Structure formats: C-alpha cells, structure tokens
Amino acid sequence: LRYTDTLFTEQERGVGIKSTPVTMVLPDSRGKSYLFNIMDTPGHINFSDEVTSSIRISDGIVLFIDAAEGVMLNTERLIKHAVQERMAITICINKVDRLILELKLPPTDAYYKLRHIVDEVNGLLNTYSTDETMVVSPLLGNVCFASPQYSICFTLGSFSKIYADTYGDINYTEFSKRLWGDIYFNPKTRKFTKKAPTSNSQRSFVEFVLEPLYKILSQALWTCVCNTSPSPQGGARTKIEHTYTGGLDSDLAEAMTECDPEGPLMCHTTKMYSTEDGVQFHAFGRVLSGTIQAGQPVKVLGENYTLEDEEDSQICTVGRLWISVARYQIEVNRVPAGNWVLIEGCDQPIVKTATITEPRGNEEAQIFRPLKFNTASVIKIAVEPVNPSELPKMLDGLRKVNKSYPSLTTKVEESGEHVILGTGELYLDCVMHDLRKMYSEIDIKVADPVVTFCETVVETSSLKCFAETPNKKNKITMIAEPLEKGLAEDIENEVVADHMEQVDKALLGSVKDSIVQGFQWGTREGPLCDEPIRNVKFKILDAVIAQEPLHRGGGQVIPTARRVVYSAFLMATPRLMEPYYFVEVQAPADCVSAVYTVLARRRGHVTQDAPIPGSPLYTIKAFIPAIDSFGFETDLRTHTQGQAFALSVFHHWQIVPGDPLDKSIVIRPLEPQPAPHLAREFMIKTRRRKGLSEDVSISKFFDDPMLLELAKQDVVLNYPM
Length: 721
What we know:
Oligomer: single chain
CATH architecture of the domain at 60-216: 3-Layer(aba) Sandwich
C-alpha cells in the first residue's frame, strides 16, 4: 500500500505527483513520543517544485538513496537545494536487500558499496556547503539503513542495542561507535582493534550487522531524525533569517524566532490543495508565531506585497482548519506556532505562496520570500477548447491548475493563444489530466510542445543608438554588449546584489522609473521573436531630458526607452539562445553504444561515461537541447529494449548555431535543417506561431534620424524596412 499516493493518477501511474502532508505522533527507540509533521514528496525530477514548497516549511529532510543505484542526478540536486535552504540532512540508504538478492554482493563488498554512498554524499556536502560540520556518518547518527520489502530499518545505535539486550553487559552507545570504519573485533582478546587480527578478519560492520542480515524495527528512523533535525523552536531563528524579508530586530521577528504561540499571527503558506470536487482550494502552510483560529479575520499578503505598495493584500475570514494525515483530515479549532495547517477560506487571493497575518496591529509585517525553484519551466504547450463556447471554463481551469502546481506558468500570447509552461513531458501530462478531468471538465486541444527561447547578443553595438520621444523633447542614447561570462547566473543565484550608490542626477532621477519600465518591457519581449533578452547589458551613454515635467511623462519616455533598447540590441549581432537539459542515463554496459546513438541523433553530446561501483550498470551523463528532447525517453527505451533509465532536467542556456536574421537562408518545409540554419528556422516558426510577421521590421525600432545615421555610416542591415 502506497499510503501517501492519495490521487487516482498517482495510484494508476505508480509515481508520486503531489507532496502529501502527514501529521502523527511517533515514538523513538527510547520510548519518548514526538509529534512529527512529515511531507512525502515526489521522487521524479520533473516535480522538484513540490519538494521546494515542502522544504520551505520543514526543519529537516530525510533523503532516501537506493543502495544499489547510489547517488543519482536528483540526489545531487536535492542535497544542493537542502544546503541552500539551510536544512538538517538525514540519509536513509534504502533497499539494502537489493545488494543481497539482486547484485548478490558478498558482505565485504556490500560494506564497500554502502561506504562509497556515504562518501559520495559527504563529497557533495563539501562542494555545496561552507559549513565544515555538515557531515553525514553512521557514527554521528544521521545515517540509517532500511529495507521496506522486509520491514527493516536500523542505525548503528539500534543494532548495537539488540546485542546489548541479548548479552546484557554491553554499553550499546560505546559499542555502536565501533561498528563503522576500519575497526575489527578480536574474539580471543574480546577487544576492538584498528588492525585486522587475522588475514580473513571482517570489519565490525560486516561481522555484527551485515552477516546477521544475510542470514536471515522502524523506530530507528525516527530516532535518527530526532537526533538530526531541530525542533520547530530550535530551528526557528535559522528559518526566519533565511526566509523572512523584514528586519529581525522587530517584536514580530522576535516572536517568530521564539516560535511564540501567544505572539502576533504569522503563517507562511507554500502549497494549495484542491477540494475533492475541484471547486475550491485549501492553503497549506506553517504557523511561525501566534495561533490561527477558525472564523478569525486575517490579512493575506501576496508575493508582490511591500510596505510601500499594499495593493497585493486582502482581508479574508478563515473557515475551517485541519491537520492533514494524507488520506483524511482531522478538523481542529486552533493551531499554535510550530505546526502545519490546512486553511479554508483564504484561497481566493493566493496564487502560489502567501503570508497570513492579523488585519490590525501588525502593520510592520512583511512577506516571506517567494519560492526559488532549482529548475526552470522551459517546455511550452498551447491549449484551446474543442468547443470555442467553452473558453470561460478552460480559463477557470487554467487559473486553478496554476494554483495547484508550484512552478507552472500560464500566459496569453499576443495572438490570443493560451500557453502553459512546465518542467517536462510527464509534468505537463499530469497538468493536462488535471485541467481536463478535474478543473474544467471539457475537451481541450493541445498543440505540439515547443520550448521557450531567449535572445542575446555576441558583440557590442556597432554604433551609438538613440531614440527621441514623440514630442521631440527627450532623447536617450544607448549601446548593448554581452554580459561577462557567468554574471547572469550569479545574478539569478543572488550572488551579485543590485545595490548601486546614487549620485546627484536629479533630472535623470525624475525619469529613472520610466526608463527602467521601458527597459523591462523591452527585455521581457525582445525584438527577434518576443522572447526574454538574456546575458546583455545596456549602457546609457547620453540622455537629453526636457526641463518641464509635462514633457517627460511616462507616456513619452517608456516607449522611447523600449525602442532604444531594441535598436541597440539589433546593432550588436543578435542571436537566439535555447534551453539545454542535463541528462543522466543508467544502462547495462552492452547498451551504452545505443545510448550514444540516440543522443547523437538529437544534437546531444556525452560529458561522462562511467560504471556504477558495485553494480553491472553504467552512468552516462550528457547535454541535450530541450527542443530535441521530446520523446527522448521512449526512443531510448526502444533502442535499449527497455534496459535504460533516463532523468533529464534544465541545466543552462546556449546560443543556437546560425544567424536568425540571415535572409539568404531558405527554410524548406518538412525537411530537417542543417545546423547553421537552425536559429533562422526557430525564429521564423516562433514568430509565425505568435502571429507576428516573418521578419523583424526595422522601421518599428529605429527613428528616422537614426536610419539616416545608419545610411551615412554605410551600415548594411538584413532587416526589411
């Protein structure tokens, strides 16, 4: 029984799709009971957004690693994400029975295999964390071993306690410290030594743990978690420092760091769960301070709320409250700080995450940071109802499905086409199932999947570009050039902060907001095919601003700033960028060549190919363009008779070969294009799909004086007038 797979689609597919909360009281091995709030998250890499929303309201994570497969792509990404969110990590090496029954490893080799997994995890922790104390080891009590098939779960401590209970005169705490590493037991002297007493002596872990297992207890895991993860009160300060956007010196922040149930109400919701009929949503979150009560009026702060701009906030009345136990809920009247809660009645203003606080007397309350996902939604599908009169039903369904999936994005193109963006094929398949069957209950047509592109430049603008406002009173001059390598990624990862010192430029300051809005408008929808501009910096070289405020309003400056962004961009050798997936394939040695063949047919290239220690499988790591990844897994299984298993996740953006503005390239329909023609093909097809003309029109982006300047300098353009 997969108890936390509560959805019909999860049971049908045999894969977790939604994170499922469970609250229960469980005892540890010493007989002490704890209230555990557990979130079972999906294991498939497409649904990592569910993991992100769950980690935000948790104090620690238990990471399950298959003993036979070892550390895989998703394991590495989860470790990195947990370190970034400052989580306490417990490792459970699962399915240890596979070492015995499938791989048929002798006990000594099984020990080496388990030790290799622990060493690999520590290598990743060392790479991603600056905290030298962040180490996992069976000796520290943050690694346990399990086999669900045989209902076994143990740590060194729990195993040594079995011996202590059997033989009586053993100190199980001291004994457990001698059950890992290069330590041997000498039966003659009855002492432990670091040197093997005889040539065929086994390490203590093999002799006392693995050999009894081969010859042939779930409290061990909870003891392990209790020893590793802090309590809600113990981990509150770290949680608040990392997630709260307000200052930490206020009474409100102090109440949150103390997890005070008598303090002002602060609740952070990170997930929305729909009711069984799919009509309403219940917000799921964690109470950080105060006590939330049924029937209480609250203020819901959205992700765009600030103290200066309070538009994204709404007063709501809390309906019923529940404690979730996966397949059923327990209704309660109040939930104090430190607990998870399912809230009715506050779903209307919440889209993704929200901060719930008291409506009065809590004016300094600020929001918790929106979720930062470790992947990107780059796969795009267009949808429309089979019956056009059912469009309102589909729009209502799109709004609901947008609430249900944390990293899903829905938008309307200029052509009127409704677009859904997700992380992968399985993800979008689940989204479409929910949209059709749960939320809109109508027939919906789906276009072939495509990917999002970005626009960039590879050189500095060939000349200074300027644009005048319609009233001829203002003029802005700019150039565009590529960003330094790695800077865009550092900005995304918040390594580089945008805090520049102000100088006294009063007149420029008065139009700064308008210029920034024009810049953001231009970079959000680039000139090539209305896709975001990336890896480009724009320099304002000169600005002539009208003295009278009437002549320098937003209506004059914003469109002008956008035009000069476009003209500077087009003068700097523009190029298209496409998303690339990082792919990890596990396959037997005799299937490796078939994997290479499938990747090569899809413009992929292999970066690493190595055997998995203690296993007959190989791991092949590669990069593949997202646009060529559709049907990749099916293709791979076909060519390897179902023996290969692939995981793919967004990794980086890369420039598409070829010049998108080269009009000498003829795109022949229904024929694969050679590499130098790809950029042109992608641009034309994207523009057609969005209802734009096939080529970039220069007159839209260049003023007449600018065109005269180009003519004077003999600049040859590939663009139509």
